[in-house]
Design goal:
By secondary structure, the protein is of the alpha+beta class. The chain has helices at about 15-25, 45-50, 80-85, 155-160, 245-250; strands at about 5-10, 35-40, 60-65, 90, 95-100, 105-110, 115-120, 125-130, 135-140, 145-150, 170-175, 190, 195-200, 210, 215, 220-225, 235. The longest helix is centred in the first third of the chain and has 14 residues, at about 15-25.
Length: about 250
């Protein structure tokens, strides 16, 4: 019996055209009824799809109709059933962010790639960092800092000169963004199950925003981040082109 497929696409015309062509060839069901969800777009749309469908049992197979497509497979219309039957599954645990704002409101969100703190004004941010409740850095003066998963380590983390982490590694990358003091500090590796806490110093004078993938929280006073192993996003890749291979390949380009 053929698999029931739900085709989702970004708003880009090329993605919408691809969705129409694939539906015409293979049919379409709602995501709640699907055996597999096919996401058509770029990495941003893949993250959006994974978040939106995390409560559903179907895995997500992406085909690139965007730009970089690190989380996507190459696009093809003719051989989709064969590719889906041979696809290899990766499970990704997201980061759980709990942000407390200066007005004492609390906001929670999940991030598959990274949680970042960024200055929101003309002055550099001042951050105090604790790992599992233990003070590790009294004051980091910077444009920001981020915690990245292995799956997200080639994204914003890599652009900020953070390390690429092997998929499945039990560490997270803590990376400074344009650090001013300590000037030469470029971050650290922390255990995957550690809780990383940022306290924003002088928050009224030096406002900071927190971002969990695409969700943004303004005027944060403190942010707590940990890996959430209760959530496992299922993502499919063509054989030999999974995240492990892609992360290795990225280090030799």
């Amino acid at each position: 019996m053929s698999e029931k497929i739900a085709f989702l696409a970004s708003n880009a015309p090329v993605a919408q055209t691809a969705r129409a062509a694939l539906i015409g060839r293979y049919g379409n069901v709602m995501p709640e009824e699907a055996d597999v969800i096919v996401a058509l777009g770029g990495d941003g749309f893949m993250l959006h799809t994974l978040h939106d469908t995390q409560s559903l049992p179907a895995p997500v197979y992406g085909m690139n109709r965007g730009t970089v497509g690190f989380l996507m497979n190459t696009y093809s219309e003719s051989d989709l059933p064969e590719r889906l039957s041979e696809a290899e599954e990766e499970k990704l645990n997201p980061l759980a962010m709990r942000a407390t704002c200066v007005d004492n409101s609390v906001h929670e969100a999940l991030a598959i790639n990274e949680v970042s703190l960024l200055r929101a004004g003309p002055q550099a941010a001042k951050l105090r960092i604790k790992i599992d409740g233990r003070l590790r850095m009294e004051e980091l003066v910077c444009d920001g800092a981020l915690i990245s998963t292995p799956a997200g380590s080639t994204a914003y983390n890599y652009s900020a000169h953070g390390p690429i982490l092997p998929i499945g590694s039990d560490v997270l990358a803590l990376t400074a963004i344009a650090p001013f003091r300590p000037r030469r500090w470029r971050g650290a590796l922390v255990p995957k199950l550690a809780t990383v806490s940022f306290e924003v110093l002088e928050s009224h004078k030096r406002p900071v925003m927190a971002h969990a993938d695409s969700r943004s929280i303004e005027n944060v006073a403190s942010v707590e981040i940990r890996s959430d192993e209760s959530v496992a996003h299922r993502i499919l890749f063509d054989p030999g082109h999974g995240l492990e291979e892609r992360l290795i390949r990225e280090q030799f380009v």
